[in-house]
Amino acid sequence: MATKKTEDAKKVVAKKATVESVVAKAEAVKKAEAAKEVKAAVKAEPVKAEVKEEKKPAAKKPAAKKPAAKTTETVFVEYNNGQINVSDIVAKAKEALGNKAVKELNVYYQPETGMVYYTADGESGSYSL
């Protein structure tokens, strides 16, 4: 009987070995399939990107805008039955500066007194309308 037990034990060990080998093979197959899927996904990504790039329509350039018709603007100040054009006030201030180029010009008009005050690049002055 001792021999039968050892033979049975050998069969059990052999069955365990075959089960373990089958499990190991199954795990190896799963790993291989997962690796194939990863490789396929990696290979597929650039292809998808290329396809997307090809399917994108060309960027549309906005139509060239036609230049807007130039508008003329005239601003008048009316006070005490009198009227004066604002551009005339600025032109006289520039004239009082000697028509030299200035970076910043500020013009103040006081209609009550009829006086125009200006500052141009730190220089100030005034004149009467």
Automatic annotation (TrEMBL):
<feature type="region of interest" description="Disordered">
    <location>
        <begin position="46"/>
        <end position="69"/>
    </location>
</feature>
<feature type="compositionally biased region" description="Basic and acidic residues">
    <location>
        <begin position="46"/>
        <end position="57"/>
    </location>
</feature>
<dbReference type="InterPro" id="IPR046313">
    <property type="entry name" value="DUF6465"/>
</dbReference>
<feature type="compositionally biased region" description="Basic residues">
    <location>
        <begin position="58"/>
        <end position="68"/>
    </location>
</feature>
<protein>
    <submittedName>
        <fullName>Uncharacterized protein</fullName>
    </submittedName>
</protein>
<dbReference type="Pfam" id="PF20069">
    <property type="entry name" value="DUF6465"/>
</dbReference>
